[in-house]
């Protein structure tokens, strides 16, 4: 029997690899001789670096970079190894996985200092630059959790671009500065970018500007008042105006779904760095070649910390389920808890979902006992399978 275990992390409790190992341990109580394929998963958000590094035998790179407010912060990214890499998708140079939040995340800015007029994505650009300097020629960038609304301007500046005002002076950091943008000079952009493929994990469909744009939808959670939201939206509009003036063929891009992700970072990546925007879980599935792992399997087990009605909209269990369905392999899920409309995923073909918390406990207790709860639940599921076989 071949069993593929492909869960996401249980946030604040266990990494995706730790979740998979606990499930494997529980199943081995009933099926010790099964062929277990462990594929730690993620959906492009927090935990994606760890999942891909763990699954491919890669390594973490730690770097001192510029934080959202200009202070120095410790960030990291991953360089993937060869284990589990798709032979069809591999390129000659290394692949790096970068989470924007590591260098430019909201968690790096104290609540009382959050101001998207000033915060910059420069640190994310420094991570990209370091990866390029190390020979990476395939970048996977996870958007989400950012503190910025600068349209990726800081990131571009870190990579060598010049953003200039009408007097030819370089713009300072922050989203508000884009109001003064008059020209963009890409002549000193990192030369390796021309040979680099960039895939951006993006799970929102917001355009750059307007009432559904980056500033209106995501600005308030980053500290923007309504007055600031309007300023920031106008600033991103100026950014798009300059881009369209210099490169007329880029004109439609500001309206593309996802260009408003991460304070407009999606727009900079697509319009100026020729990146592709893709749902995060699809990028991870491709990078880890989950299809190959599932081929010939008898069962797929996935899961995440919480399954609810939102899970069907691009979360890890849904991506794994869709992959399993392509191979006509049954899929079940284990979750830390089940929220409202959790059964929605069953309507899409998930055979069963199992919450793992055994009793009414505090959140702290649930997080602390995640591994034991997963192992016990997995063993009980395996026991039911054994009974069905008999």
Characterization of this structure:
GO terms for molecular function: kinase activity. There is one protein chain. The longest helix has 21 residues, at 226-246. The chain has a six-stranded mixed beta sheet, with helices on both faces. The chain has a five-stranded parallel beta sheet with strand order 2-1-11-12-13. The model is unreliable at 84-92 (pLDDT under 50). It is elongated. The protein is of the alpha/beta class and 390 residues long. The two termini are 15 Å apart. It contains 13 helices and 13 strands. The protein folds into two domains: 2-41 and 290-389, Rossmann fold (3-Layer(aba) Sandwich); 48-278, Glycerate kinase, domain 2, CATH 3.90.1510. It has helices at 16-28, 48-56, 100-104, 122-133, 153-158, 214-218, 226-246, 261-273, 280-288, 290-294, 316-326, 363-368, 370-389, and strands spanning 2-5, 35-38, 59-66, 72-79, 95-99, 138-142, 162-164, 183-185, 197-201, 276-278, 299-307, 331-338, 352-355.
Helices and strands in order, then pairings?
Elements: E1 2-5, H1 16-28, E2 35-38, H2 48-56, E3 59-66, E4 72-79, E5 95-99, H3 100-104, H4 122-133, E6 138-142, H5 153-158, E7 162-164, E8 183-185, E9 197-201, H6 214-218, H7 226-246, H8 261-273, E10 276-278, H9 280-288, H10 290-294, E11 299-307, H11 316-326, E12 331-338, E13 352-355, H12 363-368, H13 370-389
The unreliable regions are 84-92
Number of helices: 13
Q: What is Rg?
A: 22 Å
Task: Tell me how many strands there are.
Answer: 13
H/E element sequence: EHEHEEEHHEHEEEHHHEHHEHEEHH
How is the biggest beta sheet arranged?
Answer: 6 strands, mixed
Q: How far is the N terminus from the C terminus?
A: 15 Å
Task: Note the overall shape.
Answer: elongated
CATH architecture assignment name of the largest domain? Alpha-Beta Complex
> Per DSSP, what share of the residues sits in E-state strands of 2 or more residues?
15-25%
SS-based class: alpha/beta
Instruction: Provide the spatial order of strands within the biggest beta sheet.
Output: 3-4-5-6-9-10
* Overall pLDDT: 92
CATH fold-level topology of the largest domain: Glycerate kinase, domain 2
Total count of domains = 2
CATH class of the largest domain: Alpha Beta
CATH superfamily of the largest domain: Glycerate kinase, domain 2
Helix amount, in percent?
A: 25-40%
């Amino acid at each position: 029997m071949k069993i593929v275990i492909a869960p996401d992390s249980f946030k604040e409790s266990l990494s995706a690899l730790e979740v998979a190992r606990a499930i494997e341990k529980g199943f081995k109580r009933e099926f010790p001789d099964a062929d277990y394929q462990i594929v730690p998963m993620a959906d492009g958000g927090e935990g994606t670096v760890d999942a891909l590094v763990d699954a491919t035998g890669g390594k973490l790179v730690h770097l001192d970079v510029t934080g959202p407010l200009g202070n120095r912060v410790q960030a990291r990214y991953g360089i993937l190894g060869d284990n589990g890499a798709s032979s069809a998708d591999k390129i000659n140079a290394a692949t790096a996985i970068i989470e924007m939040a590591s260098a430019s995340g909201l968690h790096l800015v104290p609540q009382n200092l959050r101001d998207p007029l000033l915060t910059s994505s420069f640190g994310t650009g420094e991570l990209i630059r370091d990866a390029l300097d190390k020979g990476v020629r395939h970048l996977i960038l996870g958007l989400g959790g950012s503190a910025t609304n600068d349209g990726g301007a800081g990131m571009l500046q870190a990579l060598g671009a010049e953003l200039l005002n009408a007097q030819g002076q370089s713009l300072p950091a922050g989203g508000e500065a884009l109001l003064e943008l008059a020209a963009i000079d890409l002549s000193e952009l990192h030369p390796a970018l021309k040979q680099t493929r960039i895939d951006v994990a993006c799970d929102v469909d917001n355009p750059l500007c307007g009432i559904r744009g980056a500033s209106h939808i995501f600005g308030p959670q980053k500290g923007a008042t309504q007055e600031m939201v309007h300023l920031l939206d106008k600033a991103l509009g100026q950014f798009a105006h300059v881009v369209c003036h210099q490169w007329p063929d880029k004109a439609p891009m500001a309206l593309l779904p996802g260009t408003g992700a991460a304070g407009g970072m999606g727009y900079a990546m697509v319009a100026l760095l020729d990146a592709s925007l893709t749902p995060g879980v699809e990028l991870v599935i491709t990078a880890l070649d989950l299809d190959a792992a599932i081929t010939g399997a008898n069962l797929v087990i996935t899961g995440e910390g919480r399954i609810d009605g939102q899970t069907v909209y691009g979360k890890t269990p849904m991506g794994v389920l869709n992959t399993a369905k392509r191979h006509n392999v049954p899929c079940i899920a284990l979750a830390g808890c089940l929220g409202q409309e959790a059964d929605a995923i069953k309507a899409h073909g998930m055979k069963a979902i199992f919450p793992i918390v055994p009793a009414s406990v505090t959140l702290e207790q649930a997080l602390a006992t995640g591994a034991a709860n997963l192992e016990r639940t997995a063993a009980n599921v395996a026991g039911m399978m054994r009974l069905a076989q008999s």
